[in-house]
Specification:
The structure holds 2 protein chains of 2 kinds. Chain A folds into 3 domains: about 130 residues, Orthogonal Bundle (Fumarate Reductase Iron-sulfur Protein, Chain B, domain 2); about 150 residues, Up-down Bundle (Glutathione S-transferase Yfyf (Class Pi), Chain A, domain 2); about 110 residues, 3-Layer(aba) Sandwich (Rossmann fold). Chain A is built from 22 helices and 7 strands. Chain A is globular. The mean pLDDT of chain A is about 95. Chain B is built from 11 helices and no strands. Chain B has one domain: Fumarate Reductase Cytochrome B subunit (Up-down Bundle). By secondary structure, chain B is mainly alpha-helical. The mean pLDDT of chain B is about 95. Chain B is globular and about 65 Å long. The chains are: A mainly alpha, B mainly alpha. The interface between A and B is large, with 63 and 59 residues.
Chain lengths: ~425, ~220
Amino acid sequence: MSASLDKGISVLKEQVDSTVASFFSSCVHCGMCADACLFYTETDDPARTPINKTEPLRRIWKSEYTLLGRIGKMFGLTAKIDEELLTEWETLVYDSCTLCGRCSMVCPVGNDIALMIRKTREGMAAAGHAPEGLIGATTRAVTIGSPMGVKLPALMAQIKHVEKDTGMTIPLDVVGAEYMLLLSSMEIMNFPEFIEATAKIFNKAGVSWTISTEAFEATNSGIQIGVSDIAAELVQRIVDAAEKLKVKTVISPECGHAYMAIRWEGPNLVGKPFNFKVRHILEVLDEFRKDGRLKITGKEEQRLTYHDPCQISRRGGVIDQPRNLINMFSDNFVEMPDHGKMNWCCGAGGGVSSNERADEIRLKVFQRKKDQLDEIKPDAIISACSNCRIHLEDGLEEYHMDIPLMSLTETLAEHLAD
Amino acid sequence: MSEIDFLSWVRGPGFQIAVIIFIAGVIIRFAEILFLGRKTNLAEAKGSEMSSGLRTIVTRSIPDRSTFKRSTFTVVAGYIFHIGLFVTIFLFAPHILMFKDVIGFGWPSLPTQVVDAFAVVTIIALLAVLGHRMRNTVLKFLTTTEDYIVWLLTILPLITGYIAFHRIGMTPTTLLAIHILSVELLLVAFPFTKLMHAFTVVLARWYNGAISGYRGVES
């Protein structure tokens, strides 16, 4: 047994807790999770059935934590984990799953299959079976501070542009600010309009806010690849900055997994509760709306729909807020079939977009989103995750669909009354 | 061994052994699961774990519309044979007498003809489920030997019970003894196979609801 396989097995053992054991004990092989997963529905490949992706973890649970499995192991009857299995499962666990969690909503016995796959990734990564693309992104996140290699000078250049274009000042490293805004590399490089939009809204709302030059990156490749140590290190950078600046609330930007990482996994990764709040930008904006801090002018007349980013809606609990906000500037909002907590993933979350090997399949499974869109034929799609947005644009182009993508925050900013 | 000896054994020592293995097995399995424990969630909660967990235990029995459309057969056949099993096991007068004998109290029964009809429907549903399992691509892929063994152990008491009730073929004594033996096989296998889901489903659904509810999502 190689050292890395050994490590992978020991990491998998650490993943098994009472939730995992109840889940595996309850699976009846009904196959309903397959019908909930776009990687199965759009490929008809039974190997991509969600519960099958957890096989390495299941073998560990069975052989280490069940009486029958342990007895079987003594006689060499319980299935083992080897390099061959992990090699085969690498593409299932990383390329054919976005951790979207739709299977977890459908499983009749209540298995949180996405959580089980997330845990399986921990073992896969420790055993050296993570995809090159994700390893690269994670390495850059640790050494450079961003999975896309975006450094502070790049952010400063974008900020300078925004300041020059708008005459606003972007507050940097302000001690005692109420809000500390995080950004994703994707926003810094591809959608700097997000910085401008947020600044405009925050200034109008009259709240104090800041961006830390020491921790501005919101994304966390550690939770995508499944290496908790790295994920914790990335979270700690944000915690340190937030504590240093004594901010009350850290804002996760329009990025799905960033919200999962800092809001829900963050305190558990670093091992202690935060002494500041974490909110998604849409939660903050909806609070502004409730407080009457958002004055809106003009309506979008086109037929709008909202694509729920999985980690923000189904896995994150921010479902009503985007709809409240969209209704402020639209009278022509239409829901996709299966929206909200049952929305279908775009097909590129959970590290799939960082994994070039999955490029073909992520575009193939986009067919599911296409079918959803075909049913309502919207004029434009609003979303709140830069990664969804990039992939949706990619998918729409691939399928020759001409529907523009809009950011919720940016669209809201455009409708702010003077 | 005469048929009387056979019946005495399955009603006496055989039954005791099966029940002891069943109860001890279920306790061991629960202990295996619960002693693993889980870490306290340190993130600021957005909803209650307890109430969401309890809600999901109930609500997960009803699939959302789109899931029902995609998995119609599994849901419908699943419902039929689960209800059928409940009725045939717990609402058949002779079974209730047996329970009363063992645990000290009973409850009202359904007319035998009604239970008989349920038995037939359940057997048909289980046969359909098997056919589906053998033909559907996903199920064929997922299915293990254990799945077939469990299927057989589940349908055997229904078939032997049906035959015993209608006294087909052998003497009533032998038929009853075979029926009881088939139930004992089911009891012995129960804790160590997926049959255990009948109990652990409560835990799994609770955890699912609790994990989601903590984040403010009804699952």
